[in-house]
Design a protein that fits this description.
Shape: elongated
Keywords: 4Fe-4S, Electron transport, Iron, Iron-sulfur, Membrane, Metal-binding, Transmembrane, Transmembrane helix, Transport
Largest sheet: 5 strands, antiparallel
Structural class: alpha+beta
Helix content: 40-55%
Number of domains: 2
Radius of gyration: 32 Å
Distance between the termini: 84 Å
Protein name: Nitrogen fixation protein FixG
Pfam families: Fer4_18, Fer4_5, FixG_C
Number of strands: 18
Strand content: 15-25%
GO molecular function, one term: 4 iron, 4 sulfur cluster binding
Length: 474
């Protein structure tokens, strides 16, 4: 046995841990002191955040057919989404929707890393909003550090008070809008400001306002690094061709300051790379990591360090891209593969799941029928010698429009139907009424006959539902 098993060193790479005594990262009472940054990625994130906030704030106010367009009424067990009404019987549609969203997230993460966290996650959006308020009232990063270090005075008191008041107002508005998706939002605003809201509505607003204020104002990066499970399992979806925010060590090392007048070639002759070790990439990071230590689970792929580094490269006269969106394979000098088995697999599954969701929506019948036999008596004989069974018929109009339905019985010859042959049911309502079916016993060949109660929309034969039941004699 001369062959040796090859051993691979898998010792963990030393990851940068922010030191509160250095100029790179300092911890404040609300989290990390994040430095303001400007650049194309930051501009894109802000515009995208405005769109996201506008949708979040505007959707619950939209009206459709005279009622709130999106209302997820848990108490009534009814979800109205524009012209679509979902009931507990339609939970499969919600399951399909969650599956599609999950695979879409997997697909995007495999291709471009944690861009959801950096550009679309509500935690990130609200955190940047709170930081923006902080910057406007307390100043730049260095000013905020000095403000927190000095003792309380009148200037510090009014700035801190104004900041937290604005944070609370934002949190309350956020909670009101969020709860407005689950209860009529117009009545919610009126009831809350007139102190007539119910217990659960008021409790929900206070609870979600507290969560918003705590998460975006105080916890911030703790949500991303310690609480959110997505940061933990993201590595399962990464591969060597995933685009992530990456520092190029071949170009940047060795780090170190240098005169601005020195050329790039002169610095290279001294063994210096393009990284001037300014720590701006760390100061602008919302989670406080040093991207130069390689890929870390705390990185949310927001690209703030990319904008900061590119700004420094411009000032130094160096090419941009020392920190950039790239893949591990490309960084090693290999060819990047956009279409690869994992990505194609996620895309195929996503398309299949989306197709199934669309098929479920298109084939959904906005009508549900349920028939319950009378349990007190199996059957009874009428005065004219007929055998009669009694049922309770329930018709659920799952649409938002008032509909007329025609009722009939199938599977029983020469029967007599006792009840309304045509009923009118309002949108989202349940029609309940006892009905009877009678037949001459000479027309029955078995003691138990399988029958169906058929309900069909008047004027629309595509809307039809059947409920199986049994006709019993002896």
């Amino acid at each position: 046995m001369s062959e040796q098993i090859p051993v691979k060193d898998v010792s963990p790479v030393k990851v940068h841990q922010p030191d509160s005594n250095t100029k790179a990262v300092k911890k404040g009472p609300g989290g990390i002191y994040v430095r303001e940054v400007s650049g194309p990625l930051e501009t894109f994130r802000r515009y995208w955040g405005f769109i996201f906030l506008a949708l979040f704030a505007g959707l619950p106010w939209l009206q459709f057919n005279g009622q709130q367009a999106i209302l997820l009424d848990i108490g009534e067990q009814r979800f109205n989404i524009f012209g679509l009404t979902l009931w507990p019987q339609d939970l499969t549609l919600l399951a399909w929707l969650f599956i599609v969203a999950a695979f879409a997230l997997f697909f995007v993460t495999t291709f471009a890393g944690r861009v959801w966290c950096g550009f679309m996650c509500p935690q990130t959006t609200w955190t940047y909003m709170y930081v923006w308020v902080e910057q406007k009232l307390e100043g730049s990063r260095n000013k905020r550090i000095k403000l927190d270090q000095r003792p309380m005075d009148a200037d510090k008191f009014w700035r801190k008070t104004a900041k937290h008041l604005i944070w609370i107002v934002i949190a309350l508005l956020t909670a009101l809008l969020f709860v407005g998706y689950f209860t009529p939002i117009r009545e919610l605003f009126i009831d809350l400001f007139t102190f007539e809201a119910g217990f659960w509505a008021g409790f929900s607003v206070i609870f979600f306002a507290f969560c918003t204020y705590g998460n975006a104002g105080w916890m911030r990066e703790i949500m991303c690094t310690h609480i959110c499970p997505y940061a933990r399992f993201q590595s399962v979806m990464f591969d060597k061709d995933t685009l992530t925010v990456t520092y190029d060590p071949h170009r940047g090392e060795q780090r170190g300051p240098r005169p601005r007048k020195a050329t790039r070639e002169e610095n290279a002759a001294k063994g210096l790379g393009d990284c001037i070790d300014c720590h701006l990439c760390v100061q602008v990071c919302p989670t406080g990591i040093d991207i130069r230590n390689g890929l870390q689970y705390e990185c949310i792929n927001c690209g703030a360090c990319v904008d900061a580094c590119n700004g420094v490269m411009d000032k130094m006269g160096y090419p941009k891209g020392l920190i950039r969106y790239t893949s591990e394979a490309e960084l090693e000098g290999n060819k990047a593969h956009i279409l690869r088995p994992k990505l194609v697999g996620y895309m195929v599954v996503l398309m299949v799941m989306t197709g199934l969701l669309i098929f479920e929506l298109m084939s959904r019948v906005p009508l549900d029928v349920d028939v319950i036999r009378d349990r007190n008596q199996l059957y009874r004989e009428t005065a004219d010698g007929l055998v009669e069974n009694v049922y309770t018929l329930k018709i659920l109009n799952k649409s938002q429009d008032t509909m007329q339905y025609r009722i009939s019985v199938q599977g029983l010859e020469e029967h007599r139907y006792i009840g309304d042959h045509q009923v009118t049911v309002s949108g989202g309502e349940v029609w309940v009424e006892p009905i009877s079916v009678a037949v001459d016993p000479y027309n029955l060949s078995e003691t138990i006959t399988d029958i169906q109660i058929r309900v069909e929309a008047v004027g629309d034969p595509d809307i039809v539902a059947h409920s199986p039941t049994r006709f019993i004699y002896r």
